[in-house]
Amino acid sequence: MRWLRPCLDALARQSVTDFIVWVVDNASTDGSVALLEREYPHVRVLRNEENLGFAGGNDTALRQVTTQYAVLLNNDAVPAPDWLDRVLAPFDEPGQERLAAVTSKVVFAPRFLPMLLSTSGFRVNSDPRQLGVKLSSVVVDGENVTTRVLWERLTWGPEGEGAGRFFWSRPEGELLVPLPDSTGPWEVVVRWSAERRKDATLTWDGGSETGPVDTGWSEVCVDVPSGTPTVDVVNNAGSVVLTSGYGADRGYQEVDAGQYDVAEEVFALCGCAVALRTEAGHAADWFDDDFFLYYEDTDLAWRLRAAGWTIRYEPSAVVRHVHSATSVEWSPTFVFHTDRNRLLMLVKNASARRALAAVLRYPLTTGSMAVRSVRHAARARTRPPVRPTLMRLRVMLSFLRLLPTMLAKRAAGPRAVRRRELERWFVVTR
Fold this sequence. Notes:
The chain is of the alpha+beta class. It has ten helices and 21 strands.
């Protein structure tokens, strides 16, 4: 419910006025429907009796669409006033009769303060990573913003669970701290620890702070003055598939410096904010309901391309997005669906060799990770973590249950463009 007002109010301010708004309610229990009936009576509400996920939820509406175009917008996204006009305009350009979708420029909702962290690095036993310090939380003006900090360019990913969750940093890298919608000043508090006592430095535009980091958790408090430059950060500028078989957001967590300001064809769309040609969507039967959540948009894009349609990225169609507002990144739900659905997507769409390699690699990696965690626990004389291994086993069981269905969909899928030709779009990973 908390996201509906900003989203729907922004739609009401669109420069285009000839459109109908549908809201799919995925069995919410927080008063969303009552709010819509009370404050937005012009909106048509489609109610599901159960949560059908992103795929099934959107399909509830898409399979009823009779207009020439259908435009998807996440409830946690706020479009610019000219967004709808901009995202629909490419369909009217000459030579775009086979254009199936136009995907938007999605930026993270807040403005960010880039902060460079630097410290001495070290390695642990056979771990190939260069490590810096542990980071557990970031607080801005008294509000914990840890889940909204963009860690990609500084850390190795989350470790631990609950109150013990933390990130290992690299010896040097940039974190992007979300700031309140004000001109400052701001107080930023970072909680950290290290393998031994050492210094670490945080640097931002116009200032820096060096503090001692010890083996126990401590905090460094940074006062950022008014007028300090802040930046927009790209969430998605069209989507890609890597040669490793993983999907990715083009431009993810890059400071927006205009590097994605040119309209161009892209391999895949982002379901957060996209215009779709209804003819193409109906022919593809929209999203695959079996995916439930994650990779369903890349799967749809892949099938549209296999049928001979194209997809375009339009940088002038801008939305601000609260990333993972309704599904927490790296949560068990996130990990389960991204792992499983990546394999399902490859089985449905990729060349046989690439799909088989990914499917066989998953259990091998699972076993290797389990052995490594047992060895590490033995050296540390602690109990090995079992939840990651159990999660991956659950992924494999769910994947195997859906495998016959995916193979049948693969056989029945479009063949206008060969699989290997589509894989030329894949981005090489280093």
